[in-house]
Amino acid sequence: MASSDKTPDSMPVGAGKVPPGKPMTVGDQVIDKSAQMLQTLKPIKQMSQHVCTFAVYGHDMSRQIEAHHYITRLNQDFLQSAVYDSNEPSANLIGVEYIVSDKIFDTLPPEEQKLWHSHDHEVTSGMWVCPGVPERIQRTEFENIAHTYGKFWCTWQVDRGDRLPLGAPALMMSPQIANMGVIKPELVHVRDNKFKISTEELKKSRANIPVSNPGNARVADYWMHTGKGFAIDIEHAEMKMKEPQVEIKMVEAPKFP
User: 101 with 221: CB under 8 angstroms?
Assistant: First the structure.
């Protein structure tokens, strides 16, 4: 099964895009609330930013989605984010994105770099926004993000109506100014209305943000220069049933007088 497959023929019974399952019981709610009060949930509490942007499927550029990233900064050069399909309490976790600085990206092998996308246009076009946070506060962050690269794996293709995370994950690409990378105006309009922002005005205010090295972008945004994307196939493989055998050799110890 490839990540480029059409909508699965068999879908769990139910309405809309809501995952199948019974409503939560009072007991379950009590358990969850109690756990929240008693446990530290340290990794989740490190999420410091909510970013709303857009992404396109690497194997089908006609499919575009609004993506909500909840970002954790591990250090100055590496960020990781849980990606949801909305910012509502009932949002679905649809994937994960890793973000590295241009310094780290430069150290990656060429074949690995092909799986990553640049963020410069995503920032300067006004697509990358932090809802509710004034632009002036985020200006330095935007200048940094414009020099980063992301690898985003989508594990739940909700845009095609999947009510469960089905099939193989899909590699996602970033908005671009060329070809199929241009985000559909209707998607941007819906997003702007929701957060009461203007992507066009943000674009004007960010016009002087420096962008990444064009050479890097050519390697990262592979589809722009080849017309080819990546899709994952699931194949049967022989399972490794035993641990690798370790050969132990006896060596003669030095003799002491």
Answer: no
